[in-house]
Amino acid sequence: MWTVIETPIDPLRIVASDDAVRAIEFSPFGDPPGGLALGERADDHPVLVEAARQLHAYFAGDLKEFDLPLDPVGTDFQRRVWGELSRIGYGETASYGEVAKRLGLVHGASRAVGAANGRNPIPVVVPCHRVIGANGTLTGFAGGVERKRTLLDLESRALF
User: Fold this and answer.
1) Of 127, 128, 159, 160, which one is least surrounded by beta carbons within 10 A?
2) Which CATH fold would you assign to the domain 76-158?
């Protein structure tokens, strides 16, 4: 099941099972990640209603930590990376290398972390936008660098 909400970074499509968020997609929408079936639109399903409420609160600057049931589709390694992304605090950033180090991986694992980061099916909630290049640059983001900049700017403004 799914719904679409309006946000400052364009519409987002939220895809869920009966009990957890499985994906959040940037427009223009394509096939959901991981081969998920969309099912029917269900704007009033409790999981989707709560996800929409929390996302709206986040974009308003009123929510700094999401509390949603999540069930992303991915490999064990990807899920480990996504778990570590969730530990990057609101308004903070980390490099791909820092994320690899936090996971106990060797120095050269930053590319693997970057690949997993790029396959994050639940952006914004699992904050892949908080991962930056080692030199502080805004590197690739599935939603585009402008959306990444908007999210980071939103978080930095809400802190003050």
Assistant:
1) 160
2) Arc Repressor Mutant, subunit A (1.10.10)
Q: Which is catalytic among the residues 15, 88, 109, 128?
A: 128
- Whether residue 128 lies in the annotated active site: yes
Tokens of 155: 């978080």
pLDDT at 159: 59
Model pTM? 0.92
Higher pLDDT, 121 or 35: 121
∠22-81-110 over CA atoms, to 5°? 135
Integer Cα distance of 95 and 101 in angstroms: 10
* Whether the Cβ atoms of residue 42 and residue 22 lie closer than 8 Å to each other: no
Omega before 11 within 30 of 0, i.e. cis: no
